[in-house]
Write a structure and sequence with these properties.
Elements lengths: L5 H8 L4 H18 L4 H21 L8 H12 L1
Helix pairs in contact: 1-2, 2-3
Protein name: Helix-turn-helix domain-containing protein
Pfam families: HTH_16
InterPro entries: HTH_dom_conjug_TS-like (IPR024760)
């Protein structure tokens, strides 16, 4: 597994679609463990749907609109008033 963060991979995925597979691979253990909570007949279909949904989210994620720490802190303080 590479040392790249999910944030870095998400940035790279906008130009290099191969990075999407790296992100999906990182979520694979969570997907598989979650599937154990479902009934066996639907697991394969659900597995494919979860992977497709994850890919859709990665493709549509706007990395530039994610607030940094200081902006987030400022927004939270503004909402306290």
């Amino acid at each position: 597994m590479s040392n790249e963060t999910l944030y870095e991979l998400a940035q790279k995925s906008k130009e290099d679609r191969a990075q999407i597979e790296k992100i999906v691979e990182r979520f694979e253990p969570k997907i598989k463990s979650s599937l154990t909570l479902t009934s066996p007949p639907v697991r394969e279909d659900l597995y494919q749907e979860l992977r497709l949904k994850l890919i859709d989210i990665i493709l549509n994620y706007d990395i530039d609109s994610t607030p940094g720490f200081w902006r987030l802190q400022k927004d939270l303080r503004k909402n306290e008033v």
